[in-house]
Amino acid sequence: MKSIQQIGLILFLMAFALFNALMFMGKFEVTQGKLDKFTESKGIKSEVFIEQSKELIGEYSFSLDLSEKLLTIAEASHTHHRKVITEFESTGVDKELINAEWGKVIWLKETKKHGNFAAPLVAICGTGFVVENKGLLFSLTFLLGILGGLLHVLPRLKTEGPAGIKNDGIFQNQATNRGWIAWLVFGYLIAFYLALYFFPDVLTNMIYVLDPVSTSLNGGPASQWFLYGFMYCSFMVVMGIKMMIKYRHNKYQVIRSISVLFFQLGFAFLIPELLVRFQKPWFDFKSAWPLNYSAFDNWSIKKILGFDFFETWDFNALIHSDTLGLFMLVWGFILTLVIVPVMVYFYGKRWYCSWVCGCGGLAETVGDPYRQHSDKSLKAWKFERVIIYSVLLFAIIMTYGSLSREQFFLGLDYEAFITIETDDLRFWYGFAVGSIFSGVIGTGFYPIFGNRVWCRFGCPLAAYMGIIQRFKSRFRITTNGAQCISCGNCSTYCEQGIDVRAYAQKGENIVRSSCVGCGICSAVCPRGVLKLENGPEEGRITENPIDITMATEDEGKTSELRKIIIGEQKNLTDFNK
Ligand code: SF4
Ligand code: SF4
Q1: Domain count across the chain
Q2: What's the pLDDT at 289?
Q3: Is there a smaller number of Cβ atoms within 10 Å at the N or the C end of the chain?
Q4: 366 belongs to a structural domain
C-alpha cells in the first residue's frame, strides 16, 4: 500500500511539474491579421497604437515578453494622446477635435492591464506544441495529477488503520508544521494567485490545455476563471476523499464533505458553465450577498427585462422577456434576505459555511491539514471582530452606491437620495477584498495561518450570519464538561481559533459568532464532550457556567455547586450539608 501511495505521489509531482513547465512551452506568433482582430475587438481608435503595434509582429517564446511590449506601446499611445489633448485645450481648439482625441486614449488600470488588455491578444497568438496537443497535455497534467492524487489518498483506508481520530505526527511533519514544505506550498500558492488575478497572460498555455473541456461544457475556449474553477474542483475532489477517509468515524464529517463537493461541482462549476452554453449569464445560485457583492448590480427591472415595466405595463412583453434574468434577481433577494437568516436561525451558519459555500468547501478539504495553525489568542479574536465587520460595512456602502446608480424598480427617483460614486470603491473592494484578501491571503496563507483566514477575518457573509448566530439562533455546541480531560484537541483543531477547551472546562455552551459548525472539535474529542445541537433558544447562552475544575474532587457535589452558581440553591451551607 505504501508503494502505491509513493507511486501516486510521484505521478502527481510529475503532472504538477509539467503543468508549470507549460508556461515555457509553445510559442506566440503575432501577425497583422491577429493585430487587426485585437484592435477591432478592443475598439482602439488610436492611430499611434495601430502604427506602433506593427512592431509586435513576430514570434515570442514567453507570453510575458509579448504582453510587456504590447503594454509599452499602449502606454506610449496613452501619453501621446493625453499630451495632444492638453495642447488642444491650451490653444482653444474646437471641442469636437478634443472629444475625438479623448476617444483615442487607451485606458489601462494598473492591476488589470495584463488581464483585461494584454491577455486577449496573447490568447489568440498561441502556436506550436501546446495548442497542437491540448488533449495530450490535458491528460498528462490534469488527469495524471488527479490519478496520482487518488493513488496517494485511497490507500489511507488501509494504511491509517481502523477508523478514529487521525492527527498523529501533524506537528512533526514539514508539510503541516510550517516546515520547508509548507513554505514551499505557501510560496507557490501566492505566486499562482498573483498570476491568476494580475498576470493571467502568464497562464495562457495552461488555459489552452483546458480548451477541450471548456468547449464541451460552455461551447467556448477556456479562460483564466475556467482554469481556476477546474483546478479548484479537482483539488477539492481529491482532498475531499482524503477528508472522508480521515474522519470516517464521524458521520457528520462524511456527509458534510459530500455536501460541499456536490455544491461546488454542481452549483459553482457545472451549472454556471452550462448557463453560458445557452447564452445565459454565468451565475452561481448559491452565492449570496454580500459574499457575492455584485449580486444586485443589475438591480433594475428595466435592465433585466429590456423594457420599462412601469411605463408600459406590458404583460406580453413580460412573458417574452428574459424570465431567467428576473428569476436570478428575485432569487438573489430571497436567498440573502429570507433563506440565509431563516436557515441560520434554525441551524446556525454551519448550513452555509460548512455545507454549501465554495470557500468553506476548499478550506475544509484542501485546507484540512492546516487547521491547527489558526491563532487562538485573545488578540486575534479582537482583530477578527474589527476586520470582519469593517469588510461587511465596506460591502454595504459599496452596494448602496451601486444601487443608487440604478433605476430602482418601484420607480423611485434615486437622484433624491445621496448617491455615492462607486467605480473607485468597487475597484478597491475588488482589488483589496476580492483578490488580495479572499484569494492571495485567504487561500495562499493556508499552510502558515490556517485554512479559514478569509472565513474568519474577511468574509462579509460570515459576518452577517455571525450576528444572527450569536443573538438569534437555535444552534449551539453543548459541552459535557465533567468528561473533559483537557487534552486540548478541540482547541488545536478549531479552524476558527476558538479556544473550545476553555468552554468545555466551564461546561459552557459555545455560541460564538465565528463558529462555522464544522464539527471538527467534536470529531477529534476523545471523550465525546462536544455536541453540535439545534434546540430551543431558552438556556442556549449559559450565563454563569461552572468552572468544572473547581468541583472535580467530589463528583457528587458538582451538581450542587452548579445549582449555587446558577442561583437555584442559596449558599454554601446548603452545599455542605
Ligand atoms: S468550535 Fe468546533 S465547530 Fe465551531 S468552528 Fe471551531 S472546530 Fe468548528
Ligand atoms: S473537550 Fe474533548 S477535545 Fe476538548 S479538551 Fe476536553 S477532552 Fe479534549
Answers
A1: 1
A2: 82
A3: C
A4: no
